[in-house]
Amino acid sequence: MELELLHERSNTAPPKGSLLLLHGACMGAWCWEDNFLPWFAQQGYDTYAMSLRNHANSMKKGSLTFRRIKEYVQDLRTVVDSLPGPVHVIGHSMGGFTLQHFLASPSGNMGKAVLLCSAPPHGAWKLVGKLVKQHPLLFAKSNLLLSWKPIIVSKKNAREIMFRPDYPEDKLDEALEKLQDESFMAFLDMLFSYLPDPSKVHTPLMVVGAENDYLIPIADLQKTAKRYGVEPLVVKGASHNFFMESGWEPIAEKILAFLES
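Below the sequence we write its predicted structure tokens.
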């Protein structure tokens, strides 16, 4: 399996370790290129961003619709095993859900982990209820087509669901060109069919969420943090993809402090 892996070398020698960035649903390694990828390299980490199978420039294997979270966990393990330790991992959204499964049996070179607006270990039922109530026709179409694209394809929906209302138009256009469909089976895994067991996770963990996250509401963030026995960090006024938007630096600083604590 050939997986896309972007790399920014540390500005220190030797580096403090490796940092791997794992994207969420409908995205790829590209989402980290502007901010987190170069910034953490400047802080002394060999920083990498991967694309899961059937995402961005990684190898396509079978139909995206039927890919499973178990396969994404295999991809994450393959990359972590290939990097010099300690390997710290930041997982966003579906990437955070994948990371939770991986942490139940982590690689020997695993360092610390950060869940960033992560799908919750108890299942994403609150999101389903919100979509049924606020976008019933789009949700029905998504289920009929086994596709997430109807929900995120328009600028209006992208701003409501994934980005802040003031996200620059040119940046939004660029992101919409790169956003892709997501596995419907992976969505079902995140809903009920393949949930992680927090009791098996012993890796030092940080849980970060966004105040205005449409996809992962505060109640889910708080419950996730409680399941892992940590206090959540809530980013005020932020969207699901806040790490792509302005104002990301203070949160990156707090993540850095956690990695170096």
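The chain is about 40% helix and 15% strand.
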